[in-house]
Amino acid sequence: MNIKVVATSTSCLDYYPKNKDIDLIRIKININNKEYIDGETLKAQEFYNILNKNPKLTPKTSQPSIGEIVHYFNKLANQGYKKVFVTTISQQLSGSFNAIVQAQKIVEKKIKIIPYDTNTVCFSEGYFALEAQRLFSQGASIENVIKHLDFLKKNNTIFFVVNSLTQLINNGRLNKIQSLLGRFFGVKTILQVNQNGQIVLINKYLTVEKILNSLINKIQNYTKGRKFTLHILFTGNPDLREQLRQILEKKFQLLNILAIPSTPAVGAHVGNNVVGVGIFLN
């Protein structure tokens, strides 16, 4: 297979043990003027421990430089690769896709880069890369891989619950009108990553029990009797993760639900104590 599948570190594939072949272009995180490399010099558990001890911290993220991405692509070319298929986080949430496109133009005479915007984030984003890797390993063409990924793009979503919208508001990931609706103190909010790759506010409640029940209703309405797969995403609260897991197992008769922590580059924007589900319709 002379095509390399690459994802961005926001795909959370660092925390998926079966990933052996997909490289990650890593986001940078700045905490108190100290720079970390997402998933490399700063892992999820360490990051959320920092947030727990310093709840007023506002970590910042940044893309690798165009020069760094170009250097990486040239390295792949020197290893003999002719093509690189790169899945990225939604353009609505990050500049990763545009950075890949800019680097693509610089190296186009040396190696072919195929950027693909997944319109999502976290392990849902990672799933696109895993599916691309699976199909390419079976000999699928680029056109057929893109066709399959386009189907996934139209048939997946993320619902997630946050205790506070502060990080999303401060980092511009939520529009101003929705921000005003969610600023009430103590309100827990359900958000959705929609088909356009945007984060939108769905519901808000005062208690964990009510917000999780509403989350289950959203899943039921979205799946509408169709077969589906889902995974749990979370930031730094294993108790909340397990509470959701037990509810999902009971409501949907599911076993061995995959739970993948959100990488620090994502957690920097949503904060601690987040839990949710990524859903793919079959």
TrEMBL record:
The keyword Ribonucleoprotein does not apply. Gene3D superfamilies: 3.30.1180.10, 3.40.50.10170. One of its GO terms (molecular function) is lipid binding. It comes from the Bacteria. Pfam families: DegV. Keywords: Lipid-binding. The keyword Transferase does not apply. InterPro entries: DegV, DegV_C, DegV_domain_contain. NCBIfam families: DegV (TIGR00762). This is DegV family protein. It comes from Candidatus Phytoplasma phoenicium.
